[in-house]
Amino acid sequence: MGPLRPSHARRRHRLAAAPARGEADRLRGVEGAAVDQHATSEARLASTKPLSIAILAMGGQGGGVLTDWIVALAEAQGFAAQSTSVPGVAQRTGATIYYIEMLPPRDGVAPILSLMPTPGDVDVVIAAEMMEAGRSILRGLVTPDKTVVIASTHRSFAVSEKEVPGDGTGDPRAVVDAADFAAKRTIAFDMEALALENGSVISAALFGALAAAAVLPFDRSAFEATIRAAGRGAEASLRAFDAAYARARDKPRDDVAAVPRKRLDPLPDFAGHPSLDRLVGRIRAEFPDVAHGLLFAGVKRLVDFQDVAYANEYLDRLGALVVRDREHGGAADGFAFTVAAAKYVAVAMAYDDVIRVADLKVRGARFARVRAEVGAKADQIVYTTEYLHPRMDEVCGTLPKRLGQWIEDRPRLFAALDRLVNRGRRMRTGTVVWFASLYLVSGLRGMRRGTLRHYRERLHREAWLGAATGLLSSNYDLAVEALKCRRLVKGYSDTHARGQSKFDRVMAALPLLAGRQDGADWLRRLCQAALMDEEGLALDGALKTVATL
Q1: Residue 531 — very low, low, confident or very high, per pLDDT cuts 50/70/90?
Q2: pTM for the full model?
Q3: For a Cys staple, 217 with which of 41, 117, 199, 452, CB 3.0–4.6 Å?
């Protein structure tokens, strides 16, 4: 945790007196978005207790800008105001907490204001991301008799969520439920999306929601004048402010639980793309309706990964699997085996290799997305610095099968080459040299089928499908779970090696589970254990349990 940084320390003065607790609470009370702002203003001006606002924002979300706006707003209205901040560890690993207190001078004497929020005594909590609202509740900053929570419902995933091998994302519904219980009132909707729609940043939308909440004794015009006084980007900020103000008044809450799950695209017609039309025609003609959505998603992924012929190869392999599924009564189970295969065979065939990584990094769409994220103007140049750490294993995997295998079979040569290759590199892909290097690597995908990596991926995939198919006649549910185990394998380099090692260990337990009616349940538990930690400690314990069954 970094040091406190009082940004307006000159405004700190001692309070003349403190009101009784009941009187302070009465003066602080604000009910509903349609509260009489004039009445609120009169109550606040009569109070001897400061208004306190805590802002939680991660790097790049404009928490500092929002803080400066609120301080400038208060000062313009004759209040003494102070802001402090406690920075997080780094961008996306820890949020900065900005704290603001404001109070009008009394009898010509300016107040002394606190440097840090006191749990149970914060009037407004503003969170620039949904999980930060949850953390404010855990810190005790939110209380049901006092605190109004203003939060954006979008997610910016933390490192702790991304590093989990499985799905480590937090559930925003739990935060909404907690806020309903812990806060006096909650204003929560996707302010990030609203700000982007209006060409601005989230701080402007949060400022608009704060104005609509009517918890500060200032008119809307005072908020708008503060934005105008800031100068640069004022028009875009005002658009986002107005949109958030209207949204907070009209519909202050998103129903997070009602957000629909992402649906697969329907099967389209590709006018002018006969090869793709033929792929869709094959899906309609050869496969059960229940698998169409996943099959189309798989085809799109594999055409993007390699080419149309590779997508046809995928459908050929799925065609053989659906025949086996029908033979073993799959129709009665909704073709669950075919549906699982449609998803995970596509995932297995679109593996991450050096060629794929290079291809993704030099795409025009990626450069456009980065420019949009940093808010670059048309006449500004943006350089992206990539960090790559290749190993000789990846280099051999990208070489033709025989050459890559020849190098790997000579340990001394392999080790010598690895010493040259195995080190981190920072590459500025906006420069000609580095862009051309990655572009040339991405162009190797026409040779991908002849590489050592592709050969090994195909052998591993066929062994997996063979093991799953062999279970269809004796334990259909276990066969389906065996297909789903493929979700353990992901990424490239060390991540891929760890995932494949866990996958192989889980699949090795199939003979122990094949004769059990609850075998599918146990295999599912093994997969869940494998996803719990990077080292595989939970999987070790689960495998020991299975061995004693």
Answers
A1: confident
A2: 0.65
A3: 41
